[in-house]
Design goal:
This protein has 22 helices and 26 strands. The protein is α+β, with helices and mostly antiparallel strands. The strands form 7 sheets. The chain has a 6-stranded parallel beta sheet, sandwiched between helices. Helix 12 packs across helix 13 and helix 16 packs antiparallel against helix 18. The termini are far apart. Bound molecules: ligand ME8.
Length: 652
């Protein structure tokens, strides 16, 4: 018989770098779901990847004087490293720059063009570059992007349109007929009230100004709108419209598109409409999850630097607390479907309360007692009596409850069920007092039965935890002499064989001193900020010592010309300049926004320290330093060659 299939997708990520713990949320949830379904014996396909086209990338690459691919490649590697660190078990990582994806997107456009669902007309609208979204004037909030509140630009051009309006009635009907399609329920109301009821307009799906994208096969001056390109990944990754579409035939329709709530609109309106137009089946479920907030705001790339003393860097968090602790926090802390606050304190409290205290103690007490009282060999199961029945029933019944929660995609509830068993087992230790039983030789059999029940409960919890935590359950299972790969088919109570050697496990999750750790984190965050802002010490504080001519020669100074300049987002001090130095173009960030406007900077000849180690300031790459003079009040003035001087000339 064919195995049940489960096709699950994350959104494909913008290769923006500067990843934060909020980015990990969608993918960690999907990973737990994918692992859970794999353990159910289903044929799982778990897709993730990167969304690499569009104006944003084109501009960023231009600013740095590199090609879009040169800009993107290292960021994609970084993202893959992050997923490796978090043990994300994806089956395919698609990049929208993959040749096969590009070809399939072209075929999708061609098909929609031929069927009349794509047509040519003049487009005029407001474009938000960071969101890659188009808005009508009526949709703007205070003249700004309604999603992110940033500036939008009026764009007019001849474009191709997709007949989105035509599909509005079918989408409304879809929500009515298949209430499971979009979850949680509140998102249906948002879509209906904010988009469908006011009336859907046809969607502009091509650009001539942005060249970093998929070229339209029927009009090479036009490039695909990034959201159509991006959404198509869910089918192109399976080989849709390629030479080999066997995966598509096997796995489509998707069982679940898990997405953040801000992109539900694209997945629950535009995507089904495209699929309807292509005559393909619709995904079974789209889930719009909530956000990790910091100080009440969505944790985002721009908010991250001002994250009020919080560590948000996933690499640093995993380094300090381990993969399982970070995964556990993400999966447990945020009520599913809602937003949840992220603070370092919450993370540490979760680790201490659930992982170190509840789970860690249960495991170390159980294995230590088996080692102490039975020489490290598991005693036989013995008779069930007294409180045993309650513990055994809870352990045996846990799988069904966890499954029910996971059917509702609710990892926090599933984990709560498992930790309910863990707590009950800790209580069982207090009730049965094995250390008192151990004092009375006539109670040895009872002591054995108690420890067997505990070991068995620990084993069952470890197996149930495997989709969520990827390292500690395996260690726990191995300490009980079990196969670390044990699946849900081993969940019946009584699976452990008497006599198996049990290893005393050191604390799986060491307790963290919250106050000390928060102080340490505070220190790290502050020192990171300091490096980032590169605060210049006041002139009188600088210790000046003599240097030799050789020392001075180590500093490479060159004449550059500022060819573009803009403010750095969320900073009143920093300007981001694009500086041409001879043939080379560099991205440089300088703390001079109080003294020069971006417009004043463009065209200026400046002196640049060119062999300074590159750093990122507020997430923007700075590959050098523009020299300024500073007076005693801290006023700055650019240092420029006194006569006209070609850029690239050296300064000695
Ligand atoms: O939206 N809390 O990519 P992306 C929870 N390329 N989730 C968060 C979050 C936070 N603070 N910040 C980000 C895109 N995310 C498009 C998708 S799909 C065809 C194209 C989540 O890199 C966000 O909600 O901006 C989304 O699910 C994921 O990170 C990737 O976001």
């Amino acid at each position: 018989m064919d195995r049940k299939k489960f096709y699950i997708t994350t959104p494909i990520y913008y290769p923006s770098g500067n990843w934060h713990i909020g980015h990990c949320y969608t993918t960690v949830i999907c990973d737990a779901l994918a692992r859970f379904h794999k353990m159910l014996g289903e044929d799982v396909f778990f897709l993730t990847g990167t969304d690499e086209h569009g104006q944003k990338i084109e501009k960023e690459a231009q600013k740095r004087g590199v090609t879009p691919m040169q800009f993107i490649d290292p960021l994609v590697s970084e993202l893959k490293d992050m997923w490796r660190l978090l043990n994300i078990s994806y089956d395919r990582f698609i990049r929208t720059t993959d040749e096969q994806h590009v070809k399939s997107v072209q075929k999708i456009y061609q098909k929609l063009y031929e069927s009349g669902d794509i047509y040519k007309a003049e487009y005029s609208g407001y474009y938000c570059t960071p969101c890659e979204s188009m808005w009508t004037e009526a949709q703007l909030v205070g003249g700004k992007c309604p999603d992110c509140g940033r500036e939008v630009t009026l764009q007019k051009e001849e474009s191709y349109f997709f007949r989105l309006s035509k599909y509005a009635p079918r989408i409304l009907k879809l929500y009515e007929d298949e209430p499971e399609f979009l979850q949680p329920k509140s998102r249906i109301n948002e879509m209906v009230n904010n988009f469908l009821k006011p009336g859907l307009q046809d969607l502009c799906v091509s650009r001539t100004t942005v060249k970093w994208g998929v070229q339209l096969p029927f009009d090479p001056n036009h490039y695909a709108y990034v959201w159509i390109d991006a959404l198509s990944n869910y089918i192109t990754a399976l080989g849709y419209m390629s030479g080999d579409d066997s995966l598509y035939r096997k796995f489509w329709p998707a069982d679940l598109h898990m997405v953040g709530k801000e992109i539900v609109r694209f997945h629950a309106i535009i995507w089904p409409a495209i699929l309807m137009a292509l005559g393909e089946p619709l995904p079974k479920r789209v889930y719009g999850h909530g956000w990790l907030l910091i100080g009440g705001d969505k944790l985002s790339k721009s908010k991250q630097d001002q994250a009020r003393g919080q560590l948000t860097d996933p690499y640093e968090l995993v380094k300090r607390y381990g993969t399982d602790a970070v995964r556990y926090f993400l999966l447990r802390e945020i009520p599913f479907g809602s937003d949840g606050d992220y603070t370092g304190e919450k993370l540490l409290n979760r680790i201490n309360a659930d992982l170190a205290n509840d789970l860690g103690n249960l495991v170390s007490r159980t294995t230590a007692m088996i080692c102490q009282y039975f020489g490290g060999n598991l005693p036989p199961r013995g008779k069930t009596e007294g409180v045993d029945g309650e513990l055994i029933a809870l352990a045996e019944g846990a799988f069904e409850k966890v499954k029910r929660a996971m059917d509702g995609l609710n990892a926090p509830d599933a984990l709560a069920e498992i930790f309910n068993v863990v707590s009950r087992a800790n209580k069982y230790i207090d009730e049965t007092t094995p250390w008192l039983l151990a004092k009375d030789e006539s109670k040895k059999a009872r002591l054995g039965a108690v420890l067997y029940n505990l070991a068995e409960t620990v084993r069952i919890c470890a197996v149930l935890l495997k989709p969520f935590l990827t390292e500690s359950p395996k260690r726990i299972l191995e300490s009980l002499g079990c196969d670390a790969e044990a699946g849900f088919d081993t969940l019946a109570f009584g699976g452990l064989k008497a006599g198996v050697p049990i290893e005393k496990l050191p604390p799986v999750f060491p307790r963290i001193d919250v106050k000390k750790e928060l102080d340490e984190v505070d220190r790290i965050v502050k020192s990171k900020k300091k490096t980032i802002e590169q605060k210049n010490p006041k002139a009188e504080e600088v210790q000046v010592s003599e240097i030799t001519i050789e020392d001075f020669a180590k500093v490479q100074l060159k004449v550059g010309e500022v060819v573009a300049c803009e403010r750095v987002e969320n900073s009143d001090k920093l300007l981001h300049e694009t500086v041409k130095i001879g043939e080379e173009v560099r991205s440089i960030v300088s703390g001079i926004a109080k003294y020069y406007t971006p417009e004043e900077m463009v065209g200026k000849r400046v002196v640049v320290v060119t062999n300074l180690k590159p750093v990122k300031l507020r997430g923007v790459l700075s590959e050098g330093m523009i020299l300024c003079a500073e007076d005693k009040d801290g006023n700055l003035a650019l240092v420029s060659p006194e006569k006209e001087m070609q850029s690239g000339g050296s300064v000695r």
